[in-house]
Amino acid sequence: MSAVLATGTPAYEEASMGNNGNAETPLASNRQSNDEESVGAKKLKTGFGSSGVLNNGAPNNAGHMGDDGGEFEVPKSEIRKRKRKEKRRSRLFPSFDVEPSAIKDKINVADLRDLVLWILADGVAPKWLSIYNKLGITRIATILVPGLTPDLFGVTLDAVQPVSMSAIASKMPQELTFFREHFGHLWPTRAPGDRTKLFSPMTAFMNSPLPKADKNSLQKNGTAKVNAVDSSVNVPLKNLLMSAEEFVDGDYPIHSATIVADDDDRQELAEGWVETVPRPGDVAHEQKGTILVQNKYRVYGLDCEMCLTTHGSALARVTVVNWNREVVMDELVLPDNTITDYLTQYSGITAKMLENVSTSLSDVQKRLTSFIFSGDILIGHSLENDLKALKLRHPAVIDTSVIYHHSRGLPSKPSLKWLAQKFLKKEIQQFKNGHDSAEDARTCIDLVKLKIEKGMEFGTCVPSTEPLLRRLARAAVNTSRGAETRGVNGRGVVVDYGNPAQWHGTDARTIVGCKNDEEVASGVVDSIGQHDFVWARMREVEFNRGWVAYHGLKKERREKNLGENRDDKILGTNGTSEDSNIVADERTNQSDDEFFTSLINLNKRLERIWDSIPPATAMIIMSGSGDPREMSRLNAMRTQFTEEFKTKKWDEVSVKWTDTENQQLLEAAKVARAGVSFIAIKGPSDHESQ
User: What is the 3-state secondary structure (H, E, C) of 13-27?
Assistant: First the structure.
């Protein structure tokens, strides 16, 4: 689509006339005053530039065709008049300017978040990008598209500086014409993480650092005012439930009710797994006068003990207590495989205890699901480990390692023993022969009751971040439309799979839950006109590339992808890389038809969104991360080795972890953290062409 400036004056020119763009951008003072400055000069435009062209670098023609088909020269006075008019219009319209030679490192996901804060709120001006006439930008649409990678666009993994789209046009898939037509550069983007792990790009983008003044105020008062709750009212138990995002980030088994995707992408129970079901009739608890009666659900504390078998860790004991701390189930379990280590010093389980036990894992599952329903709440400490041992999926969980913080702050997690000492003033796990699972389960119940009584801030560190949507909502910024609009439209819309309200809560003005990318596109189109900020996520490309493992969806499909789609010719089972030249052709080994169809669909949906957004809207498209599959496989391998090596000799472990595997993990983490981003501002001519 052509993006040439229209000859008419933008409707908002009068409002923008009084704004001095030079005050908004550190590079504005370096603008060349020469009327004949070309886009190919030192400064490259990624928005509307002084040439009157958006992103394509083609200068306006200075001549006209005569009646005989020949070109005649336009008078110089007319040329100068046109250029002055175009230059005046370009100064009024916002643009992004970048000096590639000044970029010394990749931008990261947090940089993109800070760009949003600078434009719409009270953030700091970015050093990697210059914004001309910032106040002219009316809104921002940010779309996360996992599955887009540097190699897909013909860009190397080590690329740091923004790459001109014209330089890679012939290398990228022809299906993605949208990116060539509307963006000037591809930005190599580093995902959050460390040398061996990938952290959530969504968490990094949707949470912003607290302004220094607010953080100092919280530290001075000693309470977390950001999440303040009326101390005269007990905290509702449901407020302590883990969000869907926390389930994914914490590697919890995902219940089918937690993330509802398209029917074809619903989670399927792997063999040997069960999940809780809704309670028939939603019967209330019999005990009167408790929080449980009012909300019609039961609450249970759960703790498990494990031992090691020839097939890894296995369940050996499960204990369940009710809200009144009474034991309602306490079962010893005989693992299906031969026990190699009872881990007595941790579990308290001995060979004698299991001598006459015949209860199997499936027996325990049947009993648990007979009285624990999906609407009930399970409480535990690092409960993901217990649920994995039980091969049980449950959607309503309160984890004491999440609602209470470590003294060092996140991401460190406190031990249950430390929490009991500090907040309950009691000693637990004092037995020489291991833990008592009933004691641990009761302790978790006690910690939750204390949290309800003391408030949401109790047992937490002073926060250093707040939700991006909350920051945008409270920011009072003078815009070209007036400060009174901020705080109303400033609260954005979230368009995502499943129920985004589980992790965005009331911070978003509008929540749109979707089942597929088509619904996501429709949600953005329907919402963009009523909000200053739009966050959306499209996942079809991600699904078709087999990245679902990273997002915790569909375990059966995840294992299939990890087994079949892992490129053993690149990082082979022996750790060799004898055929690394085929990296660029990796996608041809996957389901080509589905993959390229997903690219075509993505292109159409993004074009549809672009056509719907008003002029002067900034669009940010980012992948969030690179391919995480090999990194996930190697991390799982390292975890298995670490667990086995605690109780086995080197020649007895089923997997080996050497420096070779460690180097492979470091390289795989680099791949996983290599994402791409695109930034542009829609011009007025795009609007007029609709």
Answer: HHHHHCCCHHHHCCC
